[in-house]
Amino acid sequence: MHDPLLGVLPARFDAFQWHYYAHDLPSGAVELARNDVCTQAFRLGESTWGVQFHPEVTLAQVESWMTEDEPIPDGLLEETRKRIGDWNELGKQLCGAFVEAAERVAAPA
């Protein structure tokens, strides 16, 4: 993929998703990632991105969500604890790519 943000991630990756809703692509947007449920990332133009999955999530956040949201699927906390490191690494890569893209857009011509 040639996208400056999502292009830094593998062609296929697992990401943390915590939502029960979906959305259509905005008019003119390009879908960059999806799962069986819905679009997970898109780009609109050359400097606008949206993600539905949670590249920013921490274990503490997930644990707090689990105390607020019912019912929680069996094994979700254990699975999250096993996989959070990989999810956080993807989030760091995505964040780094975002900073680089923002610096390019903000750089004087």
Architecture blueprint of SSEs:
Elements: E1 30-34, E2 39-44, E3 48-51, H1 59-68, H2 76-106
Antiparallel strand pairs: 1-2, 2-3
Helix pairs in contact: 1-2
Apparent shape: globular
CATH homology group? Class I glutamine amidotransferase (GATase) domain
Strand/helix succession: EEEHH
* Largest sheet data: 3 strands, antiparallel
What is the helix content? 25-40%
CATH class descriptor name: Alpha Beta
Portion in beta strands? 5-15%
CATH topology: Rossmann fold
* Domain count: 1
CATH architectural arrangement:
3-Layer(aba) Sandwich
Residue runs with pLDDT of under 50 for 5 or more positions: none
Q: What do the pLDDT scores average to?
A: 89
Distance between the termini: 26 Å
- Helical stretch count? 2
The number of E-state strands comes to 3
Walk across the major sheet and give the strand order.
1-2-3
Going by helix content, strand content and strand pairing, the class is alpha+beta
Q: Roughly how many Å is the radius of gyration? A: 15 Å
Brief synopsis:
38% of the residues lie in helices and 14% in strands. It is of the alpha+beta class and 109 residues long.
Describe the structure.
- This protein has 109 residues and is α+β, with helices and mostly antiparallel strands.
- It has helices at 59-68, 76-106; strands at residues 30-34, 39-44, 48-51.
- It contains 2 helices and 3 strands.
- A 3-stranded antiparallel β-sheet has the order 1-2-3, with no helix packed on it.
- α1 (59-68) packs across α2 (76-106).
- The protein is globular.
